[in-house]
């Protein structure tokens, strides 16, 4: 007769091994320190989640040890942080990257302290927060699909979204039934098998299919089409395409269009979209289309903010003139590029903001 708790334990053991390898790969990768440790910590919380819900272990002891439990409780928050940094190329640690996992851990800790049954509303709030975080992470993955220039990572977005959605539904069902005191043994076992599949598939996808996802691009900085259009290192056809790209970007200034997309740019150049992605990523070093376009916009913004003739022009009007749809994305892109806000930049040039 099959011992399903033992099957669950074996499946979770496979998952723990796979997630450990992934976490070690991130910790030893050549990415920035912040990105390395976000990845490593995410996979540590995933290991904690695997162990804390293991049916076989729960038969031996009612509750997991405190460290395993804490890692599991922070897992959804760390999934959100990991997804944002991986799929948005957000290499800087922002306050939300820290306080969101801590908020999830804080809610779970409060529920643990209060005890059953008074903690049921707290656990419900924790579950709602978890679903909201995963939902937002999935929206980030989906929104960036069109502008992602790393082709293998782009292809990985749909499977990640599907796997995360299925797993959230499984976990939500398990937690809801536990709150109602109607647990189903098959759910955590199926969850364990699913985790094993996720771990093995994740290790293969990240380390075998696309090792570039755990390391920085070899190019030290992104280049412009003009810098490489005459390079002898490129095939003649690619060099000609880069010359045409330089023309529409630098002379025609199509980057000022708020609706510019990788598809519309490819249409202007009469190129297949995938080929333009490959050139901008492989030859110029950009990992997403927004960064490629914003490089022009931010340089133009710096010039406009330092121009005395435009001293009475508001920051928002400058942002709109350069193709930004709203002030928030402009402020963030400008701060990422210069380390200061547009208003502070203007002041540093001896001009007061209007």
Structural features, described:
With 354 residues, the chain is an all-alpha fold. The chain folds into two domains: 4-209, Rhopdopsin 7-helix transmembrane proteins; 236-351, Orthogonal Bundle (Arc Repressor Mutant, subunit A). Helices cover 70% and strands 0% of the residues. The chain is built from 17 helices and no strands. It has helices at 4-27, 33-52, 55-60, 66-73, 75-87, 95-114, 120-143, 151-179, 186-209, 225-228, 236-251, 262-268, 273-283, 289-305, 315-321, 327-338, 342-348. Helix 2 runs antiparallel to helix 5 (75-87), helix 5 runs antiparallel to helix 6 and helix 7 (120-143) packs antiparallel against helix 8 (151-179). The longest helix has 29 residues, at 151-179. It starts with a helix and ends in a 6-residue tail after the last helix.
